[in-house]
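Repro:
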Amino acid sequence: MIKFFLWLVLFFIAIVGFSQKNINQLRQDLRTETRPEQQHAILLELGARYQFFHFDSAMYFHTRAYNVAVEMGRNANRADLNKIKQLKADARLGMLRVYDSHGYNEKVTEYGAQLLPVAKELQDTVMIISAYLSLGNSKFRQGIYPEAITYYQRAAELSEKSGNDLYLARVNQNLGSLFYHQGN
């Protein structure tokens, strides 16, 4: 009984202590935040929260995040240019993910093609893997299976090489779905 009670207390503390802010709290934080980099982070979080269930809101927040990065770039010194490039790329990745989750294949191809060279230049492994996954998803939806497999394999290799088990699992799930769909 005491063991159960301790687990219950720990569970409650974990829920209260580690709970994420809800959308209304994030919106309130955005209204009061004055630092552009923090505004950018909040906008990305809001875009991610709306990603699967409200396309227009998700794109609105990711576009605003991109615009904040552009504005920051206007006032940036030379040393901050890579940071600004990263912030812009993060916003573009958010847009890519929204397009992917809503099946806008042409936009996925466009944004993925634009994002990959930047992600490689920034050496952002997660961004590269995400772009490959989205491009693979787009080709899968279009029935272009050989290209989908190529993108998924690139994502798998990079996930494995970087030790990113979460993305490796996602890639393997997508490959499994593709092979199942093909009847293999």
